[in-house]
Target: tRNA N6-adenosine threonylcarbamoyltransferase
Amino acid sequence: MASPVVLGIESSCDETGVGLVRHGRLLGQALASSMDEHARFGGVVPEIAARAHLHALTPVVRRALDEAGLRLSDVGAVAVTTGPGLAGALQVGLAGAKALAYSLGVPLHGVHHLAGHVAADTLEHGPLPDPCVVLIVSGGHTSLLLVRDLARDPIVHLGDTLDDAAGECFDKVARAFGLPYPGGPAIDRAARAGDPRAVPLPRPLPGSYDFSFSGLKTAAARWAEAHAGRALPVADGAASLQEAVADVLTRKAVAACRAHGVATLVVVGGVAANSRVRALAEERCQAAGITLRVPPLRLCTDNGAMIAAVGDLLVRAGAAPAPLDVSIDPSAPL
Ligand code: KG4
Ligand code: ZN
Model:
């Protein structure tokens, strides 16, 4: 039997994403973001994000269907992020997904947001090799995972950040540097003109495969404060911060691959868009004989296609659908 079109909905933070996937192939996707509404607060405001999802969801579903040249009646299954994420934001996506699944009479699948980030890469590069190590680096997460079959095997957590996520570190230091929100892309742009050796910043390497970015964040913010009243060499600060983050991320990721005899590293999440993280990962993987997979930028940040991709894997693996009274799990463990 041909596999159905899976409609995926992502609404865990500030992006309302809808994607349509059939048998590993992305048919169409659309995205709305409330990022601009949060900019003046320097971070995502949960209440604003939830309201924005409510306004955006129906038009984004429509746009994704239009892009794919499909009608709602072509949808054969619905997948939705149930967690982790902001409670109010998740609720809106789940309510929309339930309504769609119920009215179309199709199965509903709840998806873990991080499994979505992992699966994003399959839409570009095909099925993931079993096993692979996945580094997820976003505004909310910095995790090293050992992944086997996404639809059947549990994901093994190798390490996590002990404090701030890497994206959070970029966002907060960018603020201290007077750069706009979100800070990651702003740091990336500013770093182009800077010297990565200009500012001595710590390269925190806590035990095993864990990470720690709060000391680095504080050191970079202190460096900025020390320039009070004088011009801040932002480009040098940005380049030095980016180098330190890229160094610890790629060092640990390659070490995890080596220790587990894994030949493929996948880097996903918003921070995978960082130019220095990408370049250093490429360099170190090549030196270690590891294949590096990084999805294109539009699939690196939050989107609905990645949730549809997991839904598609679940459907094809014959996973049991979620009951219609399934709840969100804002702090869902893996
Ligand atoms: O995956 P994502 O869209 O959302 C979640 O946090 O789940 O990731 C957003 C994060 C933000 O912290 C943003 O600053 C960071 O990814 N980011 C970047 C870049 N583009 C986005 N960080 C560094 N360099 C970039 N080019
Ligand atoms: Zn994310």
